[in-house]
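Researcher: Re-running this chain for the archive, since the previous output was lost when a drive failed. Same request as before.
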Amino acid sequence: MTNYVSRFIHNYADKVEPLRELLKKDVSFEWHEAHTRAFDDLKRQLAQAPTLRYYSPNEPVTVSVDASSRGLGAVLLQAGRPVAYAARTLTPTESRWAQIEKELLAILFGCRRLMYVADTLSRATRDLGGKCDQRIQEQVSLHINTLVTNLPFSSNKMQAIREATRIDQSLCEVMDLYRKGWPHTKSQVTEKAKSYWEVRDEIHVVEDVVFRNDLVIIPNSLRAEMINKVHEGHLGIEKCKRRARDVMWWPGMAAAVERAVRECEACAQRRAAPPREPLAPHAVPDRPWQVLATDIFQVKDKHYLLVVDYYSKYVEVATLVDLRSATVIGILKPMFARHGIPQRLVSDNGCQFVSQEFRDFAKDWDFEQVTSSPHYPRSNGFSERNVQTVKNMIIKSQETKTDFYVALLNFRNTPISGEKYSPAQLLFGRRLNTKLPVKSCLLNPKTPLKKEITISRNIKNDKMCQYYNRGTRALKPLKDNEQVRIRDPAEINGRGRWVRAQVERAAAEPRSYWVRTPDGRRYRRNRQQIIPAAPRRRLVLLPIVPAQGLIYLNTMMTWRSVAEVNRWVHRVYKDPRIQLNIPLSATLVQAGEYVRRKGFNCIIGTHN
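Model: Regenerated C-alpha cells:
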C-alpha cells in the first residue's frame, strides 16, 4: 500500500529505509524500536489528508531534489506547494558514491520521474501565433550564423563541400531523415544512413552543410583530399587524428586517417624502431666448455680474439696478427686441444666466421656453429659484455704499465658476481695460484655441485628478466611471403630508412627471419629489425573513351608510384582528349581523385 501512494508521502525513501533493511537476504529479521517508529510514522502519513495541491498550467513549475546517504527524493512545486513527490532507495553501489555524485543522480532521477507533467503539457499545445519569444529566435539565428561563419574553411572550400554534399547519396539520405525525422529503430534506416544512426541526435543541417554538433561532416568525394591536408607535414597518427577531430567528422574518420598515415611512404621509411621484446636468456649448459661464445675486438691498433664459456664464464684472449679465417682457426685449435672441443660455438657474422674455410673447420672438428642476427649485437650479448670487460682491463694495464695477463689471471680466479665459485673453479674444479698468498688446502681440487650452480643461475636469470621485461612487448610472429620493411642494408649499421622486403621463411635461430628485398638480395634479420608494411595501393581504372562513347574498358593494373600511373596512362590511352598529367609529388589517393575528375571511374583498393 505504501508503495502505491509513495508519491504523496514526503521523504518516502528515508521513512521506509529501516523496514527495507529487514528484507535484505543476509539480514536476520529482528524487530526493534526503530522499526516500530518507522511503521507508526507510515501509518500516520497514510491516515492524514494529503498536502498536495492541484496542478495549474498557468503557473511556473519548480523541481526540487535532494539526496541523502540512503535515498533520493524529488518534488514538483508550484507557488511553493508540492504537486507530486518521487523517491527511491539507493542501491548498495550508489550508496558508496561521493555526495556530489548522489546529488547529480537525484537531479537525473527527479527530471525523469516527473517528466510525465512535461509530456502532458506537450500533448495540449495551443497556437501562440506571433507571440513566440523573440529572444529565442534571435539566439537560434545567432547560433546558426556563428556556426557557419566561424568554420575554419574558406568560402571556396565551403562551396565545394555544399556541392559535394548535394550529390553524396549517404548525406542526402541523412538530410532527408533530419527533416522528416529518424525512425524508431536502426533496422528501419537504409544502409547508406545506418553509419550515422548512433549520432543522429547530434546531426543538424545548415545551408546544405551537414554538421555533427559543430563539426562539418565531409562528403565522401572530398575525404581523401581532407586526409591529405591533415597529414601535411607528415605528423604521426595521433596528432593527425587530433587535427581532424577539431574541424570535421565522418563515420570511420579515425581509421581512415590512421590507414593513410601508415600507407605514407615517407613516414614508413622514417618510422621508429619496434619496442623491446622480452628477454630470452640462454639456457644454462649442462657442463663446462659445452657452449662457447667468441668475438673479435680492437684496442688501439691491435685486434684480439675472445672466447668465453657460457657455463663457467672462463675467458680466453689471444692477439690476432691479421683478420683472416686461417688465423682465427689457428688460435681456436690450441684452445680446443687444451680444454676440449665444444658442442656449440656462437659468433657474430664477421667474415672470419661465415667463410667457407671456417665452415669446413666446424665440420671437420664436429661442432655446431651458430651466428647471431646481423646488425643486432644484443643477440650475442654474452660475448659483447665480456669484450667490454677485457677491453677495460687491457686499456688500464697499458695506462698503468702493468702486465695484462696478471689482471686476466686474477679475473679468472675471482668468484662470479652473485655466486660462490670463480670461473677457474667451475672449469677446472680448483682455484688458480696467484701472487696473493693463499692456504694450500684452498688449492686442492673440489668439484662444484652442478645442481647448486643451475638453481643459482636460473634464479638470477628470472630476476634479471623480471626487471628487464618491464615496458617490453612480444612482437607478432611473421608469416611466409608477408610484406615487411627492414633497415636499408646500403646505409651504415643498418640504422637508416626502412625499405620494403618480403619474408621468405623463419630462420633456424630464434626470432630471426630470412627476407628478400625488391632487388633480389637475401638478408637474415632479427624480429626487432623488421616492421610490418602497409599494403600497397591499387588503382582499378574503368576509363570512358570519348571517341567510342560510353564504352567501358575494364583494366586492372598495379602501380608502386604515381610516375608509373602516368607512364601507363599515356602509353595505353593515346587519345589527345584524355590528359592525365598527374603531379609526381601526388599520392596514389590524390591520383585516384584526379583520375575521377578526368572522366574515369577509379576504385582505390589494397593488395599485399
